[in-house]
């Protein structure tokens, strides 16, 4: 069988949702294409295993940006999931939806907070039970981390001492405050969208999943998409469908559109790609959160560094997880959190803090040999706009990525003020009583210029790229309010790339909600056809 009702390109956070929802009623056949392998690597399913996957090219695209001019011409390492579940299989598991204002400011009918909240609720299986903001029984499981930690408690108390309220639900009435993160885990296991959505759907006869299948172009007859060409096991394959849905994310969806002749016409012609539609905004408007870390030496042997310092400690950690599904292996990429306003006149938080009870000089590297903890910060409302463009007409070549971080004075001000607040929190009791020294940036960094220099020298992505196939009501937007590519028939984009602006926080929860709503739109249109 090579003809389907729908072809979904990309089995990531959005694609797995779509595969489930579009096959649930049994009426429609779906082909799901994934460039990576099945999610068999055991580190995918152990929460702290994300550290083992950071540089693993078997399940990770391992992209790099172009040299970033404001960041000392550094290329920013950019991991993205290349496996069933996509980035939901290799990310830090943190469950944050964003702020109400984010969605309301998108300015697209049906895509405001009121329009998306039902889809957050529909997706969710909240371990705390249902209320007006949360649901139970959905495929996407959300839980508290199994263990509290005294360093996290101290961080929360020190944030409160600096005027932040205690907040036990960042996804409820308000995001502002300090508390513990929730994560996409249950009983000590990661719940990716492959686990939550795709596993049940794979039992259905109307779904076919092909892995190690790299989509090379969308096929067109005139202005109508009719199928997808892909390579698998060294052979070129074609599959046809009445509708093609791209779900490759903020980098791969615009890349595939451009490879297929949909994008900035002159640039495509220069690469020898026949232009199907001159769409200048395909690949533009890239947004992300810049992320800066600080390290602190702890005066008590209570960190994960200490747990993992000996073979006996590592064995104990393994046994904790094996027999109790608890302990350090259940920790997500954020343990305790704070969402704060860096200036009192702001109406909502503009800074996010990640506190975690270990320190490591390089993400994905080896733990420091001393007790340590990490406190990190990112700005929430990105103003900088970058782009994603083809490097060549070869689909196997990684796209060019330019983040264009810190292009506005306000972003620079936010990062400096945010890092100064971070230091203030850590050096306030009770957390200050655990600190021997500030390892990075160190006490020599004091002035605003010194802070900015440190941020420019060390800042990197926190893996929240969005907006490269922008949703909008204007003629230049890439997709319309029903996620159909403007100017073409039979083609949609449903993933993080359609967000008009990046949400205030981790993006995975919002991607799932976008896909839930997108699936409903597809099914509504099918019912009317």
> Radius of gyration over alpha carbons?
22 Å
CATH C-level of the largest domain: Alpha Beta
Largest sheet: 7 strands, mixed
Helical content band: 25-40%
Which CATH architecture of the largest domain is right? Answer: 3-Layer(bba) Sandwich
In total, how many beta strands? 26
CATH topology of the largest domain: FAD/NAD(P)-binding domain
- Domains, number: 2
Overall SS class: alpha+beta
CATH superfamily of the largest domain: FAD/NAD(P)-binding domain
Q: Percent of residues in beta strands?
A: 15-25%
The gross shape turns out to be globular
List the total number of helices. 14
- Uncertain segments: none
End-to-end gap: 23 Å
Mean pLDDT: 97
Describe the 3D structure.
The protein has 529 residues and is of the alpha+beta class. It has two domains: 331 residues, 3-Layer(bba) Sandwich (FAD/NAD(P)-binding domain), CATH 3.50.50.60; 178 residues, Cholesterol Oxidase, domain 2. The protein is built from 14 helices and 26 strands. Strands 1, 2, 11, 12, 13, 14 and 26 form a seven-stranded mixed β-sheet that branches. Strands 7, 18, 19, 20, 21, 24 and 25 form a seven-stranded antiparallel β-sheet that branches. A hairpin with a 2-residue loop joins β13 and β14. The chain starts with a strand and ends with a helix.
């Amino acid at each position: 069988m090579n003809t389907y009702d729908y072809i979904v390109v990309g089995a990531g956070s959005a694609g797995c949702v779509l595969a489930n929802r579009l096959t649930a009623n049994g009426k429609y056949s779906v082909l799901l294409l994934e460039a990576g392998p099945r999610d068999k690597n055991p580190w995918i399913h152990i929460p702290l295993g994300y550290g083992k996957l950071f540089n693993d090219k078997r399940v990770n695209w391992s992209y790099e940006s172009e040299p970033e001019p404001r960041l000392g011409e550094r290329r920013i390492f950019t991991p993205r999931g290349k496996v069933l579940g996509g980035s939901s299989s290799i990310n830090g598991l943190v469950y944050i939806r964003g702020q109400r204002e984010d969605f309301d400011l998108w300015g697209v009918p049906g895509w405001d907070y009121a329009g998306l909240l039902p889809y957050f609720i529909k997706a969710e299986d909240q371990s705390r039970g249902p209320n007006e903001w949360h649901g139970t029984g959905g495929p996407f499981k959300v839980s508290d981390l199994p263990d509290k930690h005294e360093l996290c408690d101290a961080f929360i108390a020190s944030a409160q001492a600096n005027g932040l309220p205690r907040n036990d639900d960042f996804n409820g009435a308000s995001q502002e405050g300090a508390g513990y993160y929730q994560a996409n885990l249950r009983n000590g296991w990661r719940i990716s969208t492959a686990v939550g959505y795709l596993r049940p759907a794979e039992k259905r006869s109307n779904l076919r999943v092909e892995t190690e299948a790299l989509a090379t172009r969308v096929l067109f007859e005139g202005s109508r998409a009719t199928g997808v060409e892909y390579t698998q096991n060294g052979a070129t394959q074609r599959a046809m469908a009445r509708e093609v849905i791209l779900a490759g994310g903020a980098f791969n969806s615009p890349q595939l559109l451009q490879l297929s002749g949909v994008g900035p016409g002159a640039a495509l012609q220069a690469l020898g790609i026949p232009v199907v539609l001159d769409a200048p905004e395909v690949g533009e408007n890239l947004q992300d959160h810049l992320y800066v870390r600080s390290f602190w030496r702890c005066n008590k042997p209570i960190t994960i560094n200490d747990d993992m310092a000996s073979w006996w400690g590592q064995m104990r950690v393994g046994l904790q997880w094996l027999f109790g599904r608890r302990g350090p292996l259940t920790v997500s990429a954020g343990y305790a959190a704070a969402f704060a306003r860096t200036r009192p006149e702001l109406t909502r938080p503009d800074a996010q803090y990640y506190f975690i009870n270990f320190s490591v000089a390089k993400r994905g590297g080896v733990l420091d040999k001393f007790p340590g903890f990490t406190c990190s910060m990112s700005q929430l409302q990105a103003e900088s706009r970058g782009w994603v463009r083809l490097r060549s007409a070869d689909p196997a070549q990684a796209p060019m990525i330019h983040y264009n971080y810190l292009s506005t004075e306000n972003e620079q001000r936010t990062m400096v003020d945010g890092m100064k607040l971070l230091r203030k929190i850590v050096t306030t009791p009770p957390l200050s009583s655990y600190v021997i020294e500030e390892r990075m940036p160190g006490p020599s960094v004091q002035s605003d210029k010194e802070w900015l220099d440190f941020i420019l020298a060390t800042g990197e992505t926190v893996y929240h790229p969005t907006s490269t196939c922008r949703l909008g009501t204007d003629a230049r937007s890439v997709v319309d309010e029903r996620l159909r590519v403007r100017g073409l028939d039979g083609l949609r984009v449903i993933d993080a790339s359609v967000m008009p602006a990046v949400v205030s926080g981790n993006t995975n929860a919002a991607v799932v909600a976008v896909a839930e709503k997108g699936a409903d739109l597809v099914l509504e249109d099918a019912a009317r056809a």
